[in-house]
Amino acid sequence: MSERWIRRDGARLRIVEAGEGAAVLFQHGLGGDAAQAEGNFPDGAGWHRLTLECRAQGQSEPGRTRPFSIAMFADDATAATEAAGMRSFVAGGVSMGAAIALRLAVTRPDLVSALVLVRPAWVAETAPGNMRAYGVAADAMLRHPRHPAAARETFAASTEARRLAEVSPDNLASLVGFFERPDLASTADLLADIAADGPGVTREAIAALRLPVLVVGNSEDHVHPLALAREIAELIPAARLVEVPAKAADKAAHQAAVRHAISGFLAALPVAPSEGILR
User: Where do the AB hydrolase-1 domain residues begin and end (predicted)?
Assistant: First the structure.
């Protein structure tokens, strides 16, 4: 594994690369980092994986440009692939990372040769209902920016938090973890902005995609409903949907199944190993 850094709009951003072979851009979810991406990507797959830690996530700086957006992160990811000399790549990611990959597939078809969408949280809409709890958490942070415990208690008392406790405790645990971050102000901006955002593409543009696509979904997940994974898979003619064990029930089994699905998908792509590109 190696790392490099790029600067975008005054923000220093971390890039992590691992493996050898054809290029894959594989992005983490909201609040995640390169380690999350690594945990969902198959070892020894014969591919060169690049993950950009998006602004205000992982070790990357938030910078001053606001609002944060999926389009911003997609542009940053493109700059990261350019810095690494990638001329064409498979685009993929988890949750927010899947939204970044989907946007790139639509807006940069010259770069994206195949698509891997793991636990998507968006199709085409902005501010989908399944992301509402992130906005509520951001509001609690803004009300108590210097008092994480008070902010966490405010969020815990909210209707959204109580609902997640009943229907998707794994999602709730992930959200509560944001209150441990040292910079609640930039974290609030991140959560509020991305929860209110979307990939910035239309269903018509998604349906017009003509490239190999893997969509991975699971049940017992309010933020990443299996219905969204099914909808995307139905929109794209060449898409394949794989349902894996719920992350909430067994994280290790879930990640193992995700890695297995991605490994099989990548192995079936028409890649010339010596050239490292898709044909």
Answer: 23-245
Residue 188 DSSP one-character state: H
If DSSP codes are grouped into helix, strand and coil, which group holds residue 73? Answer: helix
DSSP string covering 96-146: HHHHHHHHHHHH-TTTEEEEEEES---SS-SS-GGGHHHHHHHHHHHHSTT
Residue 122 and residue 99 in contact, taking contact as beta carbons nearer than 8 Å: yes
Residue 106 sits in a domain of what CATH number? Answer: 3.40.50.1820
Flag whether the pTM goes above 0.90: yes
- Residue 33: name the closest of 6, 7, 60, 72 by CA: 60
Nearest CA among 117, 9, 18, 1 for reference residue 54: 9
143 and 29, same domain (yes or no)? no
Q: Which two tokens stand for residue 129?
A: 């209902």
Question: For each of the chain's 279 residues, which pLDDT tens digit applies?
Answer: 899 999 999 999 999 999 999 999 999 999 999 999 999 999 877 999 999 999 999 999 999 999 999 999 999 999 999 999 999 999 999 999 999 999 999 999 999 999 999 999 999 999 999 999 999 999 999 999 999 999 999 999 999 999 999 999 999 999 999 999 999 999 999 999 999 999 999 999 999 999 999 999 999 999 999 999 999 999 999 999 999 999 999 999 999 999 999 999 999 998 644 344 443
In this structure, the answer to whether residues 55 and 30 fall within a common structural domain is yes
Q: How many domains does the chain have?
A: 2
Is residue 149 domain-shared with residue 255, that is, in the same domain?
no
